[in-house]
Amino acid sequence: MIDLTKNEMALEHNIEQARANQIIIPTIAQMKEPAKIPGAIKEKLTEVGLWDVNPLNLFRISWKNEQKEKGGLYGGSNYIVLPSELTGVKAKIICMIGKWFPTGCHKVGASFGCLAPRLITGQFDTTYHKAVWPSTGNYCRGGAFNSKLLGAKSIAILPAGMSRERFEWLSQIAGEVIATPGSESNVKEIFDKTWELKTTREDVLIFNQFEEMGNYMWHYHVTGSAISDAFEEMKEEGDRFAGAVFTSGSSGTMASGDYLKECYPKFKLGVGEALQCSTLLDNGFGGHRIEGIGDKHVPWIHNVKNTDMVIDIDDEDSQQLIRFFNEPLAHEYLVKEAGVDPAFIDMLQYFGISGIANMLCAIKMAKYYELTEHDVIATVMTDSSVMYQSRIEELREKEGEYTPTKAAVVYEKHLRSIKTDAMEELTYRSRKRIHNLKYYTWVEQQGRTVEELDALWYDEENTWGSVRRQADEIDRLITEFNERAGVKL
Fold first, then answer.
1. Cα–Cα dist 44/94, whole Å
2. Average pLDDT of 456-480?
3. Nearest CA among 332, 376, 377, 327 for reference residue 351
4. How many CB atoms lie within 10 A of CB 399?
5. Taking a C-beta distance cutoff of 8 angstroms, is the pair 389, 279 a contact?
6. Where are the alpha helices (H) located in 99-253, listed in sequence order?
């Protein structure tokens, strides 16, 4: 469960900080249903940019923001449905759009779910602690942003090999940025640095997304309900919600699948990873280039027992497609040769590298289960191409000018030829194998106990179930915090 024990002295410090900085904290219920946000806050938001370092942007931690760079309010869930001319499958694939969160990525929500419970209980003291955000990219951006909005100091940790855009932005937001050795595949090096900080400094509090149940709780309630709303809006007569798939990363987004499984019978939940580091599929290891999804371990907050399928994606496919989706000649090919509606081309901007990997996972799931035009699969586009312009330029320098022939080859080889290889439908035994891999990271290295590990497998009601039920109590504490701060707009 999420610890909600109060430290009254530190809590009073946080309340004073909120009062001084005009901070009002949104509830989980308001993030799910922005209609519950007070009118005075909505009025002020009409003057605020989406990325502005303004506490009011806490109220834009939602999948339902209006698609505007400044002054936007709210609507329905932000999503697109991929055309079969692009995917090559009959099934309808819903892709939730992460670009319209502050920071351009839904990780700002996951990090809120981790920080807010500590702040409203006083376990985190804004006058003393620094929030440490270990990440392979977007999570530390979201954490640093939320810290800034909530009047807290932050330390961002991410691999040195991540995209230039991440470091440039973090240098303006985080109090300190630490680059660890390696790239996307080097999660252990991140853990080593956080362990060093934890054991040598008393003024830091680690928010490790891979084990923070606040990450799971936020996605279960906010992302899960947003995906359900999207399906209910787009479905046609006879449509079935067949499943969802998300690349592993911290596994926070996987929690939305737990929510959806409770809502829709026969729903299948898949988890994706890079073929070059096939940890979940066959205990493998290695390096890969799908930024944002981590590897070489099983996150503590992954409810493996509730996962139906593992799907591996070749990182070369995602690399080639991030450039393909951003080349005018490729756009022409999609319209003239593949028959994609010209109006859809603008939607390609919403794909980042991990979003492309998620799309490919959904295509493989649709092919494996032989889904029809009445079946729907959901996934997320965590961020957008905005975060990868330097990667696209690197590919241009490496591979040279794009041509119509190049566009045709990439489309056929890296999209339409996706097969059902390197994937596994999980049995009880194979789920248990993956769950047991948690031992080597979390018990041997990170101080968890075998009893805690076993509870995640054998005691659903008092582990995953307890965390899901805590949202109401957290909202009560947020409301109490806001009332004590007494901030009026």
1. 32
2. 98
3. 327
4. 12
5. no
6. 107-121, 138-149, 164-173, 187-200, 213-218, 224-234
SS3 call for 292:
coil
Q: Which of 13-22, 38-47, 268-277, 384-393 has the lowest mean pLDDT?
A: 384-393
Residue position matching structure tokens 């494996």: 368
Cβ(167)–Cβ(149) below 8 Å: no
- Averaged pLDDT, 236-244: 97
* Residue range 64-90, pLDDT digits in tens: 999 999 999 999 999 999 999 999 999
For 369-463, where are the alpha helices, taking DSSP H only?
A: 389-399, 404-411, 428-436, 438, 450-458
Do the beta carbons of residue 419 and residue 165 sit within 8 Å? Answer: no
Give the separation between CA 311 and CA 280, rounded to whole angstroms. 9
Q: Please write the tens of the pLDDT for every residue from 269-300.
A: 999 999 999 999 998 888 777 776 656 889 99
Among 53-62, 124-133, 135-144, 357-366, the least confident range? 135-144
The pair of structure tokens assigned to 323 is 């450039």
**Residue from 215, 281, 208 nearest 441 by CA:** 208
Extended strands (E) in 275-313: 309-313
Q: In sequence order, what are the residues at sequence separation of 6 or more whose Cβ sits closer than 8 angstroms to the Cβ of residue 300?
A: 210, 211, 438, 441, 442, 448, 456
- What is the distance between the alpha carbons of residues 366 and 372, in angstroms, rounded to a whole number? 8
How far, CA to CA in Å, does 287 sit from each of 136, 446, 480? 13, 22, 46
Task: State the Cα–Cα distance between residues 390 and 394, nearest whole angstrom.
Answer: 6
Q: Give the number of other Cβ atoms within 10 Å of residue 290's Cβ.
A: 32
- CA 379-384-387 angle, to 5 degrees, is 135
- Whether the pLDDT of residue 182 is over 80: the answer is no
User: Is the pTM here over 0.90, yes or no?
Assistant: yes
Tokens of 247: 């690349």
Q: Which of 80, 91, 94 is nearest to 366 (CA)?
A: 91
How does DSSP classify residue 27?
P
Query: Which residue spans within 165-323 are E strands per DSSP?
Result: 176-180, 204-206, 240-247, 268-274, 309-313
Tokens standing for 93? Answer: 């694939």
Residue 435 CA to residue 457 CA, distance in Å, equals 8
Which run of H or of E encompasses 381? strand 375-381
| Dihedrals phi, psi of 181, to nearest 5 degrees | -65, 145
* CA 213 from centroid of its chain's CA atoms: 14
